[in-house]
Amino acid sequence: QVQLVESGGGLVQAGGSLRLSCAASGRTFSINAMGWFRQAPGKERDVVAAMKWSGGQTYYADSVKGRFTISRDNTKNTVYLQMNSLKPEDTAVYYCAADKNYRSSYLPPSRQSLYDYWGQGTQVTVSS
User: Fold this and answer.
1) Is 12 helix (H, G, I), strand (E, B) or coil?
2) Which of 29, 47, 48, 106 could make an SS bond with 110 (beta carbons 3.0 to 4.6 A apart)?
3) 59 Cβ contact partners less than 8 Å away, ≥ 6 residues apart
4) d(Cα 13, Cα 100) in Å, to the nearest integer?
5) DSSP letters along 61-122, please?
6) Count of other CB atoms within 10 angstroms of residue 43
C-alpha cells in the first residue's frame, strides 16, 4: 500500500502562484508514476500533470502547459505541482495519485483509471 498526503492548497488571487506537495509513504518503491488531477464543482476529475517516477518524463494537460510544473524529490518521496499565473478556472480540488504498475510507455499515464492510490485532495481557490 501507498499513502499519499497533499498539502499547499489555499486561496490566491488570479495571476498568483501556489505550490502543492504530495508526500508518499509505505511501499513507495512500487511507484511507477505520480500524477496530479483536479475536480471542479459539477465537473469530472481531469488530469493536470503526471511524471514517471524514475525517468522523470512528464505529461501536462493543454490547459496548464507553460503555467504549471510537476517535479519530484525522490529522497523525500514527494511530488510537487508549481502553479503560476493562476486563473479562476483553475479553482478545484486537487488530488495526487500514484500508479504502481510497470508500463513500457515513455510517458506517464494520464488516465485516472490507471492510478491505484489517491490522496484526500486539497482545495485550490483562485479569485478574480
Assistant:
1) strand
2) 47
3) 35, 47, 49, 50, 51, 107, 108, 110
4) 36
5) -GGGTTTEEEEEETTTTEEEEEE-S--GGG-EEEEEEEE-S----SSPP--GGG--EE---E
6) 9
State how far the Cα of 104 lies from the Cα of 116, in Å rounded to an integer. 17
Question: CA of 8: how far to CAs of 17, 110, 124, in Å?
Answer: 11, 22, 9
Give tens-digit pLDDT for 55-103: 889 999 999 999 999 999 989 999 999 999 999 999 999 999 999 988 8
- Confirm if 31 and 2 have CB atoms less than 8 A apart: yes
**Cα 85 to Cα 101: distance, rounded to the nearest angstrom:** 33
What amino acid occupies position 21?
A: S
Model confidence at 106, in pLDDT bands (50, 70, 90)?
A: confident
102, 32 contact by CB (below 8 A): yes
Identify which of 109, 122, 117 has the alpha carbon closest to the alpha carbon of residue 19. 122
Residue pair 34/95 in contact by the 8 Å Cβ criterion? no
Q: Which amino acid is located at 67 in the chain? A: R
